[in-house]
Design goal:
Blueprint: H1 3-37, H2 43-51, H3 54-82, H4 94-119, H5 122-127, H6 129-156, H7 162-171, H8 174-177
Organism: Micromonospora tulbaghiae
Keywords: Membrane, Transmembrane, Transmembrane helix
Protein name: DUF2269 domain-containing protein
Amino acid sequence: MSARRAALSALVALIAVHIGCTLVALAAYSHRIGVVTHDGASFPVELLDAVVPLRDLLPAVLWLLPVTLLVTFAALGSWAARRTVRPDDERLPRAAWTAGIAAVLLNPLAAVRYASATANGGEYMRTVQVETTLLVLAAAVATTMSALAVAGFVRRSDTASPASRRMRDWSADPAERE
């Protein structure tokens, strides 16, 4: 598998894992509020908890996220190291940097706020539910936007070596070369 394909696959996996982690965290959050306040959670949350207990699923996806992040960084590093063509004007898009900085700031903030809310009991969770939910969703959106922008950059970048580019130019029709 080429370094470019590995980088793109790792970015897609990061997006999928981060969205899955966000959904499981919000489902566990909603379920815990419902259990503590005795008004129940929504049907999809109850169904998910019946299939796979959320208290077991949440730690698994929370450990899967950093592993996926490390694999993504390794794949992107491998792709960057193997690139042979580096035009001077080729830079990572501003959207990737902006969303990446937002993701770096929002992910720890959302994780701390989520942990704080779940540690203080159901009534406290109910009072901060909207804020915590929005922070967790904003972190997932920022990570997804950043990963998509980087994926677009990787996909558009030219990874061909100068020698293969010359061969392609030489094999073109003589009328097209001039």
